[in-house]
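ESCALATION

Customer reports they have been waiting on this structure for their group meeting. Please prioritize. Original submission:
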Amino acid sequence: MIKPGQTAPAFTGLDQDGRELALSDYAGRKLVLYFYPKDDTPGCTAEACSLRDRHSQLESAGYEVLGVSPDGVAKHARFKAKHGLPFRLLADTDLSVAKAFGVWGRKKFMGREFDGIIRTTFLIDEKGIVERVIDKVLTKDHAAQVLATG
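Update from on-call: job pushed to the front of the queue and completed.
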């Protein structure tokens, strides 16, 4: 997994509208890059809505927000519209972004082991350096975790 102090891996992909999106689009701005397993599941919806509900505070703190999951463009578009999300969602259908950041791996859920997205958020500075990694995400209060210093 990418650690604080490392340069965030460059990536490109498509957002929920099928428009190309790259990490370099956020150069000169701070970015909340959050990886989540699946659109419209309870935990992922709570996390996205937490970031939505405090989006103006995140913007005031200088942050842009970008969500990433393996779901496709059309599913992202429905999720964004359904919940009124004010930020873009990246369709990482080939898992290249998740693997570059080290958040694709073995998980356990209800006694079952499988490969999947390890819910993680990277706070990236204006120069593309990872400032902080949140790997114990509180889905219902994730925006507060992002806004907390340290």
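Sent to customer with the following note: The longest strand covers residues 63-69.
Escalation resolved.
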